[in-house]
Amino acid sequence: MKSSKPVHLALVALWFTIATPVHAQAIDSTRLISDLRVLSADSMEGRRIGTSGNARARAFIENAINRIGLRPLKASLSAPFVAKSRAGADLHGVNIVSLLRGRMHPDRYIVISAHYDHLGVRNGVTYNGADDNASGSAAVLALAQWYKYHPPENSMLFVWFDGEESGLVGAKAFVEQPPVPIEKIIANVNLDMVGRNAKGELYASGASPYPVMKPLLDSLAASTRVKLILGHDTGSGQNNWIQQSDQGPFHLKKIPFVYFGVEDHPDYHKPTDKFERIEPGFYFRCVQTINEFVRHLDLALDRVVPVRVAGLQNKD
Ligand SMILES: [Zn+2]
């Protein structure tokens, strides 16, 4: 009989392998990479706000949301807004907002975001923006898919911002006219450039202004498969990234955030920021890491709520 036990265990393991669908176990890496490839294709014309290429990228993301089975928060996934460009012209942008209701706290929201716009076509040259930020946009789709099959405790808003490259105008419009009462938005997790790094390093910013995030990030850094480094969230100047992507407007509303992204690389805001230069292994590990963070944040949101409440009471 001694020899039957390993056989029995092997059969149980086989049964789990067959009975558990792939989507219930992990981020879908194949879909992740193929979504990034589509969003950074020449046909998207660099996704600049207000262009047909930008609208094509939006249609692709909305189709994916519908396939995943997430609902819009309002009547439509598209949330149009008008903003001023840096030169004072009207910019017509469209954020994409989808909802996954939480099981335990449906009236508390975590916003998971990435900007889907990029620089467009300049002098006939297409700026594909594969890392900036097709990588974050495809990653948020992958997270939405994962949470659809692993329902969260708190409600999650999966949001793709427009007009980040034009002065964070999509995120500003979102927090100025929030689709849910702003005091119910407890945290923001923003992804911008998570697809490549020569040193295998991913930064997490936000623990300095919001120390409540630090234990979550510290334990993640100790266990995860990328070099996760906390920082770029203090001081003045270019090394403080807080106002350099869409987490900035959330921070100004005192919403605790964590921003995930890499150091600028030589292809940053160049036509060479292409799909071919994405590092699929690193990218996949980043998305797994961010997924792990969001999972722990969701379970630990009770700890973040008092920070949010204190931010609402402190008006300066
Ligand atoms: Zn960006």
Q: Can you put this structure into words, describing what you see?
A:
The structure is a single chain. The chain is an alpha/beta fold. The protein has a single domain, classed as 3-Layer(aba) Sandwich (Aminopeptidase). The strands form 2 sheets. Strands 1, 2, 3, 4, 7, 8, 9, 10 and 11 form a 9-stranded mixed beta sheet that branches. β9, α6 and β10 form a beta-alpha-beta unit. The longest helix is centred in the middle third of the chain and has 20 residues. The chain is globular. The protein starts with a helix and ends with a helix. The N terminus is likely disordered. Zinc ion binds next to α4.
Outline the secondary-structure elements.
Layout: H1 4-19, H2 29-39, H3 52-68, E1 71-72, E2 78-84, E3 90-100, E4 105-115, E5 120-122, E6 125-127, H4 130-149, E7 154-161, H5 169-176, E8 185-191, E9 201-205, H6 214-223, E10 227-230, H7 247-252, E11 257-261, H8 280-299, H9 301-313
Parallel strand pairs: 4-7, 4-8, 8-11, 9-10
Antiparallel strand pairs: 1-3, 2-3, 3-7, 5-6, 9-11
Helix pairs in contact: 2-4, 3-4
The chain binds zinc ion.
User: Under CATH, the topology is which?
Assistant: Aminopeptidase
Given the helix and strand composition, which structural class is it? alpha/beta
How far is it from the N-terminal to the C-terminal residue, by CA?
73 Å
- Strand fraction band? 15-25%
Contiguous low-pLDDT stretches (5 residues minimum) are 1-5, 16-24
| Overall pLDDT confidence | 93
Envelope shape: globular
| Rg over C-alpha atoms, rounded to the nearest angstrom | 20 Å
Q: What's the CATH H-level homologous superfamily? A: Zn peptidases
Ligand types: zinc ion
